Amino acid sequence: MEQILKVENAVKRYGTVVALSDVSFELCAGEIHCLVGENGAGKSTLIKMLSGAISPDEGVLTVFGNEYKRLTPALARKLGIETIYQENIICPDLPVMENIYLGIESRKGLLVDRKKMRDAAKELVERIGVDIDVETPISKISPAQQKIVQVLKALAKNAKILILDEPTASFSKNEIDKVLDIVVKVKNTGTGILFISHHLEEVFKIADRVTVLKDGEKVALHDSADYTENQLISEMIGRDPSSFFRKKKHGKTSDVTLEIKNYSRDSIVKDVSFSVHKGEVLGIAGMVGSGRSELARIIVGADKKSSGELLLNGRKHSINGPRAAMKIGIGLLPEDRKKDGNISGQSIQDNIMMAEFNYKTNFIRNFSKENLIAKKYIDLLKIRTPDAKNSINNLSGGNQQKVILARWLAVNSLVLIFDEPTRGVDVGAKEEIYKLIDDMVENGKSVIMISSELPELIAMSDRVLVMREGSVVAEVTGDDINEEKLMMYSIGRNI
Question: Burial letters for 147-176: b for 16+ Cβ neighbours within 10 Å, e otherwise?
């Protein structure tokens, strides 16, 4: 195969932190080259280097035979390098075709030639084999289809090298399969694809080659047939997966911490009732769009409910917003941590202390005390950062997730709702998060875990509620917590 991209001996430092150390990497035309590693392994740094967002301190980048010391975003696009990140970047009110050709619209003089753009979008959709109406507003199609539109947008810009960063995070199995099918079709057109994923089953499905990074260094390169899942995990984290954390099953205690009675929100959440006990992990399963995240949002007051009551330790509370939920001891780690969880651009310390600020009765800050609290949780949760003043934007996804968890631990929350707690998180960081959850319930906290990953729910939950079309359709316990039953309830099949 023709080599179209080569990275030689790339080094990137941030002060005393070495993000990439002497890393070399190659990509060929018509190849899917998967990049795997823990959060903080250097994957994001390599992506940013190739997209022109950052410059290497040392090393050479060769693109289509031409050598460069560094790329800029404009030069990367000119060379045919397009990057699609985990979060969908869309204009929700515009139709699919205008999202595809945004910035490169067909024109008649000063006017946009909508017919030409529509015809070109239809041709592109048909060529790749996608079932999407190009005139539909993009907000009306599924998240997986929105991701596919991002791929089409890159192809419309004549992408020769396509970088996909966690493209299937929090998608259902069905949606994941659709996205992967499109990725393979794009590969077959001759485009070279750099694919980053924490879901190793995706790697096994589509990879031609796999590069493993650990602590900023390249530790392995494999052809598609010469590795196993256990081997990849061992290379990523430096130990055998058989030694991984296994949660104890706690089951119900007699003490009910949180009780939800007849919660509804329009037609999105319908008459939902359940309780969570002290020292229990209650899982919530269901397909994307089943109302799981919407239920979490109305519990903490981020969205208004139409009806229902909430009791905490037997006492009724009226929650009119997230601040009121915080004050009584209910916290939410949201699904979209960048949009709803982090204070982008602020320090780790400020992000950890954000919930604590709501308890203050004056506006005088004790920075010395805040630094001690932040350092305590940085050490406890093993957050990889030089210090508490570092911007949260500089952290990997898994470490950002830990910062949000530290926020709620710092205010001693009674009930924590985790919405997709390990989205975009590597296997090593997942284990750390699972251990933290187990420690919390061991100490009497109550946890609600919403997850699209059935193995995660099965491993961590004492009970599982299954939601479909806004309602709780089943409560599963004991040996019945298995993939077959959870999936059957989720899709409405009889068991």
Answer: bbbbbbbbbbbebbbbbbbbbbbbbbeebb
Do the domain assignments include residue 248?
A: no
Domain that holds residue 64: 3-241
Per the CB < 8 A criterion, the answer to whether 106 and 116 are in contact is yes
Tokens encoding 406: 């530290």
Q: Is the same domain home to 226 and 104? A: yes
Q: What is the DSSP string of 388-436?
A: TTSBGGGS-HHHHHHHHHHHHHHTT-SEEEEESTTTT--HHHHHHHHHH
Does the reported pTM lie above 0.85?
Answer: no
pLDDT in tens, 94-106: 999 999 998 888 8
In a domain, 138, yes or no: yes
CATH of residue 448's domain is 3.40.50.300
- Residue 34 pairs in a beta bridge with 195, 210
CB 311 within 8 A of CB 394: no
Residue pair 73/154 in contact (Cβ under 8 Å)? The answer is: no
Q: How far apart are CA 135 and CA 480, in angstroms?
A: 44
Q: Which two tokens stand for residue 485?
A: 């039953």
